[in-house]
């Protein structure tokens, strides 16, 4: 028998910022549309075909595609919730000269001679973008509201790193 866990014992999964860039929002909408109109109908047809063959207990096609259908439905539910909850943050001229959400920031560590160009975005936009960082990351939090030429200290497990802001750009 399963024990019902009282709400006070449940763990809050994340405490992420619910902001997203317009480009990120469009990508999520496209993904939802693709899953709903292309992938899900294909998998549903495969499940129906496999079910029509008879005995399902040893039918690998049936079991695999039923599992895949559950995964797609889970992603559809997640995307629908995200698209409803996310706040799309558009560029505004008042952001110029300051590091804010959606900014491309070039930073440099003079001690180690490292240069990086990063974009500060929401968590859901990180997948597949190696030059994007989450707004909730220590680096992004340190950079927020800073200007070109400012130096920021980022505290990490291996020690503090000092980064200088070389440029700030926004996608307009």
Automatic annotation (TrEMBL):
Keywords (A to Z) from UniProt: DNA-binding, Elongation factor, Protein biosynthesis, Transcription, Transcription regulation
A single MF term (Gene Ontology): translation elongation factor activity
Keyword Transcription regulation attributed: yes
GO BP annotations, alphabetical order: DNA-templated transcription elongation; regulation of DNA-templated transcription elongation
Segments forming domain Transcription elongation factor GreA/GreB N-terminal: 19-88
Residue ranges annotated for the Transcription elongation factor GreA/GreB C-terminal domain, each copy included: 95-170
Recorded family membership: Belongs to the GreA/GreB family. GreB subfamily.
Protein function: Necessary for efficient RNA polymerase transcription elongation past template-encoded arresting sites. The arresting sites in DNA have the property of trapping a certain fraction of elongating RNA polymerases that pass through, resulting in locked ternary complexes. Cleavage of the nascent transcript by cleavage factors such as GreA or GreB allows the resumption of elongation from the new 3'terminus. GreB releases sequences of up to 9 nucleotides in length.
Annotated PANTHER family: TRANSCRIPTION ELONGATION FACTOR GREA, TRANSCRIPTION ELONGATION FACTOR GREB
NCBIfam families for the chain: greB (TIGR01461), PRK01885.1 (NF002506)
Protein name, as recorded: Transcription elongation factor GreB
Record organism: Marinifilum flexuosum
Lineage start: Bacteria, Pseudomonadati, Bacteroidota, Bacteroidia, Marinilabiliales
